[in-house]
Amino acid sequence: MTALLTHCVHRFASGFSLDAHFETGPGVTALFGPSGSGKTSILSAIAGLFRPSLADIRLNGRQLSSSASGTWLAPNQRAIGVAFQEPRLLPHLRVRDNLRAAKPCDPARAPPIEVLARDLRIDAILDQYPATLSGGQRQRVSLARALLRAPQLLLLDEPLAALEQPLRAHILDVLARTIGQWGIPALLVTHQLDEVRRLASRVIILDRGTCVANGPVDEVLPKAAAAGLLAQGPVNLLHLHDPRQDDLGWTARLGDQRIRIASAPSSEGPLFVRCLPHDVLLATGPADGLSARIRLRAAVRDVVRQANVPRAFVLLDIGQPLWAEVTLDAIHDLALAPGRKVTCLIKSTALEPAFGAR
């Protein structure tokens, strides 16, 4: 189901050309690409803060912008919540009054200020002025204001850039829960692949103002990386379950194995760790005598060859997606193809807490 249709064309005085056309449904779609690829310009056009020379923008069938008909709704008429990397708070108002200034699009769905402030951990600063806040606090106030709009669409432009772990992980959990409960579309601009994996079900890759790939995250990111469209390959984000403490520290369950984790998990929200595809080794026979402590049964789902290098990404199913990076020789020797059963080997030291400090 299409909830948001966006078509923006504009040539800037700098010579940069934007020509982006895409459709999205409910849930989070990430806009991903290098700096200067047009991500923020697209969000600004959808929000009504920037008017392209050609635009056709519709939300739930309602025309927000149309160069053909001359339609251009003001930002406050668009039922959109916006949180930018640089918060635009009213400096003469305390935090509480900045939040009260957010007029709900759907009052029945808007959370109480006190509840949302507690969820975003800004309840202790409600009586402060923006000038007294840290960058991370201002970002959370901006995000709270966007959510208090109870909008039909959320636009999130690097909304957590100033936050560190574990606060960033907690806020991502709040966002995932809220967007899921509301069933609305959201566009997320971020340079962090672990945020894409955590929040987004779809991703749009932008390159020099044009959408060059669009689809499910676990399909698009590896293929985009293999084609040289990303500065890095895909990142594995693994969901752990059932954390327990023993005499040596903490363990959690990953697939059919309990693994040791580096630190105590947060008492709130799910537990995630990340690792890179080149940290995942594959075996088709006995894997004895190796130092890798994590050994997971898996089935190959896809093999994506990389451009210009003799390597490939292998998509594996361990009950959740896992990517390995292997040589073409390994693909041949192990007969890696969809349906092939393998064992994944990962060193415990390769797992890092997800959403760590930038």
User: Into how many domains do the coordinates divide?
Assistant: 2
Radius of gyration: 22 Å
Strand content: 35-45%
Helix content: 10-25%
CATH class of the largest domain: Alpha Beta
Task: Provide the structure class.
Answer: alpha+beta
Shape: globular
* Average predicted confidence as pLDDT: 91
Let me know the number of strands.
Answer: 21
Describe this structure in words.
The chain is an alpha+beta fold. The protein has two domains: 4-229, Rossmann fold, CATH 3.40.50.300; 237-353, OB fold (Dihydrolipoamide Acetyltransferase, E2P) (Beta Barrel), CATH 2.40.50.100. The protein has eight helices and 21 strands. It has helices at 39-47, 95-100, 113-119, 135-148, 167-182, 193-199, 217-226, 328-334, and strands at residues 4-11, 17-24, 27-32, 54-59, 62-66, 71-72, 80-83, 153-157, 185-189, 200-207, 210-216, 236-246, 249-254, 257-261, 271-275, 280-283, 294-305, 311-317, 321-327, 341-346, 352-353. The strands form four sheets. Strands 7-8-9-3-10-11 form a six-stranded mixed β-sheet, with helices on both faces. The chain is globular and about 65 Å long. It starts with a strand and ends in a 5-residue tail after the last strand. The mean pLDDT is 91.
